[in-house]
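Our working data are protein records whose layout never changes between entries. An example says more than a description, so a record of this kind follows.
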Amino acid sequence: MLQIKKESIKRESPEAPTPDSTTVESKSYICGEEVLVHLNDERFYLGFIAKLRYKESKCLVKFGDNTVKWVFLKNVTRMTCTSTTTQFCNVCNIEAMPDDICVCDKCANVYHRKCHKPEVEVTDVTVWICFQCKEKQQINRLQVTNSVSSTIVPKVVKLPYDLNALQWDIHHRINNLGTYCYCGGPGDWFINMLQCGKCLQWFHEKCVTSLIYPLYLGDRFYVFLCSVCNVGTEFVRRIEMEWSDLVHLALFNMTAYKPQKYYDVDINILPYLDNHWTSMYLPPKILNVPVDDRKVYVVNSLLKDTNHRFEFQGKKPTNMWGLRLKLPPKPPRFTLPAEVPINENLLHHQLRNKLNLSILPPPKKTDLVINERLTESMYSVEGLKFLHQDSHVVMLPKGLPSIGHNVSIEHLHFYFHCKKMI
C-alpha cells in the first residue's frame, strides 16, 4: 500500500478546494479512477475505486498491495492528473465493461456475470460477494465452530443466554439466533456437536469436557446431558451401533470429506473403516471382528438396506455404493426423566430397560488410541455442500414444541395460512 504523508501534498491553487462528498464534482467519480484516501493515521494512501455507493456516500478502494477498504467519499481525493485503472475479469482476464461486471464487496475482484460460477443473473446487484469470498466465509465459520475454546469451566450451571427465547426449526436442530452450547457460539448440528437429552440444546465437541473419543460428523449415538440439566455434572454414554449404522456413518463422513456419489467397497469404504476403527467408539461385537472378516459384514449391511439407506451404481449390485440421502444415521429415540439427575447407577439399573437402549460402559482413558488421521480436516467445503443440509428450514411459532405429537402438519399449515392472511 503506497502511503503519502499529509504534509507532502501541496495544492497548486488555494482557491481550488479538495473535492469531497459534499461537492457536485464527487458524483463524477468512476470505477477504476485512481484516488488518494485519507485514513485515520493522518496519511494518504494511493489506490483506485473498485465500487461506488452514492446513496451511502461510500466507495470500495483497492490499494497497491491488493488490500481493500470501504471509505467515505469525503475522505477520497481525486488525483491532479485524472487516470483510470482498467479492470479485468478475474476469470477470463479480459477487460470488463461497466455494464457487464460484478465487483465483490469483500475482495474488490471483478467478474463478468457469465464468467462467475454460478452465473450472476441479477442485473441490479448492490451488495454482492464472489464465490471465493463465500467459501472463505464458510471455512472461517466452520473453523470457529470446530475450534471453540475447550477451556469451559466444568460444572456450568447456567447458560449465558436465555434458552427459552430461542425459536427452533421443526426438528430442533437450528434456532433463529444461531446460538448454541455453553459458549453461546454458532454451530451446525451435524458437525461435531452433541444434543442434550433434556434441554435439547446442541453443544460443541470441544466444549464438552466429558468426551474421550472423537466425535464424527453426524454421530448422534450418545446419551448426553449437559451440566446445566444434570446439576453441574456432564453425563455422556455411548449407544451401541449396528453394522448398518457404522457403514452409514462412514459413508456420510466420506461424503463430507471427499464428495462422490458412489464409493468402492475395497478401495474406499474398507480402508476408511480400518483407518478409523479404534477411534469410532465401537461395541465389542463389532470392534473385535478381524480385519479379513469385515468386508462380509459391510457388504451384507449394504445389501440388506437398499430401500432406505444405501444405493448401488447401475441396475445390479456392484462394488460401488453410496447413500440414497446424504444425511447422517438416525439414532434410537428416547426420553429421559426431566427432574432426576442421571448417573451410572440410575441409567443401568432403572432406566436401561425403560429406554430400550444398548449402552456401552464408560470408556477408560487408557483404552483410546487416537488415529493420527483425525488431526486432518474431516470435511471440506465442497463435501458439506454435497450433503442434504440446505433444505428449507421451517421455524416453529414460539410456544409450539418442536418434537412429540402435540404438533401436527395441519396445525402448522393453519398457522402459516393465518399469518399470510394477516
About this structure: The two ends are 55 Å apart (CA to CA). The longest helix spans residues 131-146. Helices lie at 131-146, 243-257, 265-275, 284-287, 294-304, 344-355, 381-386, 409-421.
